[in-house]
Amino acid sequence: MRISRFYQIQKTLLQFGLDELIPQQWQPWYARLARRCLFWLRNRHPDQPVGVRLRLALQSLGPVWIKFGQMLSTRRDLFPPQLADELAKLQDKVPPFDGVLAQQLIEQALELDSITQLFDSFDTVPLASASIAQVHSARLRMTDDNVADVVIKVIRPDIRQQILADLALMDTLADAAARFLPDGKRLRPREVVQEYRKTILDELDLQREAANAIQLRRNFDGSDSLYIPFVYSDYSRANVMVMERIYGIPVSDIAALHAQGTDMELLAKRGVEVFFTQVFRDSFFHADMHPGNIFVSRDTPANPKYIGIDCGIVGTLNAEDKRYLAENFVAFFNRDYKKVAQLHVDSGWVPAHTKVEEFESAIRTVCEPIFQKPLAEISFGHVLLNLFNTARRFEMQVQPQLVLLQKTLLYIEGLGRQLYPQLDLWKTAKPFLENWVKQQVGLPAVWRQIKDNLPFWAEKLPQMPNLLHQYLEQGPKQQRQLLQLLTQLQQQQARARVQIVSATFAAASLISASIVFFQGSMALAVLLFAGSIGFAIKALN
Ligand SMILES: Nc1ncnc2c1ncn2[C@@H]1O[C@H](COP(=O)(O)OP(=O)(O)OP(=O)(O)O)[C@@H](O)[C@H]1O
C-alpha cells in the first residue's frame, strides 16, 4: 500500500514537473538516474506557471494534501504572494461517504442497537461533507419527551490510516526538500510538516473539538455578539459529535444579510470586537475563522449576532504573548519603531546582542510603506506578519500560537472589510489594547493579583495556625538535624584526607623497601616494609 501510494505521489509530482524545482546540478546522481528510468512520466503541463502546477498536483493527491496546501497558503512568511494566492484556491471537494455507513458508525460509537433508540429521525443524506468529517441532521429525543434539532458530525472511516500513511510520505519528501531544494534551509520543510501533522491529527479528535466548543460557549454566555451551538457531550465521542443545529445565514452571503436589513457596520465591528475579546479577555480564540465556519443569526438583524461552528482549532495565549501583542501594537500605531525594537531586546524576544538601531531600521523599512495608508485602513495582520518576518531574521523564535493568531487576524480583517468596507480597524481595536495595557499596571493590576490569589489564601488560612505551630516546633529540631549532618560530613571529609595521605605513604614505603632490599640492606628493607603495612592498615580504616 505504502509503496503504491509512494509511486502515485512520485508520478503526480513528475507529471506536474515539480522535480524541476530542484536544479540539475543539485540533484545527486542516483536521483538523476531514477528520473531517467521513469522516462514515461513527462511533465504534462510545461506551459503552466509553477504555482498552478503545484496547486493542481496537490488537488489530484487528495484531501490530506489539499489541506496541506491550504495551510501552506497561509504561510506568507515563507512563500511569494503569487504562490500563496494560487494555493489559497485549493478547495477540498470530496464526495460524501455512504450515509448508512455513517449511521452504523454512530450506533457503534454510542453503543446503540439502533439509531432510533436515541434519535427520532436521522437523515442519511449528509448536510455537508468535508475531507475529514461528514455532517448529518437528526432529531434527538430529550428526557422531557421534547425533541431537539441536532447535527451529528462523523469522522470518515479509515481516514486516520490514510492520514498517517500520507504524513509518513510527507516526512520523506520534507527530508528530500530540506536537502535538495535551493531554498531548503529557509523553508524549514520538516518543521512545516510537523506543524501540519499536529493540526490534522487534532482535527481527528472530536472530543477535543467538543471541549473547545463548550469552553468558547461558556466564555460568550449571554453575549450579544457571538453564539456557539450547544454540544451534547453525553453523546460525543472521538469520532462522533452531536450538537445543536443552527439556521443562520452564512457570513459570505452578503446579499442575504442585506436583504434581512442587517446592521452591517455593527456586524463588522462586532467581528473585530469578538476576536479581541477572545484574545485579550479570555486568551482562548477560535483559530479556524474561515467564512464557512461563521454564520449570522436571523433573529435580530439590527443587533446582529455571529454564530461560530467548527471549534477544532483554537489558539491559547499566555500573559507574555498578550504583553507582546498589546505593547507592540500600541508602539506600532504610534510609529515608534525604536520602542518596538527596544521592547524586543528588553524582553529577551531577540538575543541581547541584537543591535537596536539595526533592528529598528529593518522594522521601519518593512512597516513604513504600510503606514502610507490612512490609519483606518491598516491591517493589523499585515503589521504582525511583517514584524514576525523581520524578527525571525534577527533570530527571534516566533511562537506558533502567535502565528496562528496573526493568520486569524488576517481572516477577521478580510471578513470585516467585506461586510463593511469603511470599517476603521484601529478605532475598533484600540480600546481593547489600551484597556489591557492599563490593567497591567497600577492599582487595578495589584488588586487583580490579590483577587486571583484570594482563593489560595482562603484555602490555606484555616491551616495557618497549625502550620505555624509545626514550624515553631519543628524548626529548631530540623536545624539540629541539619547541624549533625554537617558535622558528620566534615568528619568524613577529614577521614578521607587521612586515608589518601596514608595510602601515599604506604606506596612510597613499599617502593623504598624494594629499592633498599635490592641494594642489600635487609634490615632497613624490613623496617620500611613494616612501615608500609602500617600505613596501608591506616588507609583502609
Ligand atoms: N451546528 C450546525 N448546525 C447547522 N449546520 C452545521 C452545524 N455544524 C456544521 N454544519 C454544516 O456542516 C458544514 C461542515 O461543518 P464543519 O465545518 O464543522 O465540518 P468540517 O469537517 O470541520 O469542515 P471544514 O474542515 O471544511 O471546515 C458547515 O459548513 C455547515 O454547513
Automatic annotation (TrEMBL):
Its EC number is 2.7.-.-. The keyword Transmembrane helix applies. Signal peptide: none annotated. Residues 89-343 form the ABC1 atypical kinase-like domain. Keywords: ATP-binding, Cell inner membrane, Cell membrane, Kinase, Membrane, Nucleotide-binding, Transferase, Transmembrane, Transmembrane helix, Ubiquinone, Ubiquinone biosynthesis. It is a single-pass membrane protein. It holds the Pfam family ABC1. The chain crosses the membrane at residues 523-540. Pathway: Cofactor biosynthesis; ubiquinone biosynthesis [regulation]. ATP binds at residues 127-135, 153. It is found in: Cell membrane. The active site is at residue 288. Its main location: membrane. PANTHER family: CHAPERONE-ACTIVITY OF BC1 COMPLEX CABC1 -RELATED, PROTEIN ACTIVITY OF BC1 COMPLEX KINASE 7, CHLOROPLASTIC. Belongs to the protein kinase superfamily. ADCK protein kinase family. Belongs to the ABC1 family. UbiB subfamily. Is probably a protein kinase regulator of UbiI activity which is involved in aerobic coenzyme Q (ubiquinone) biosynthesis. This is Probable protein kinase UbiB. It comes from Rheinheimera muenzenbergensis.
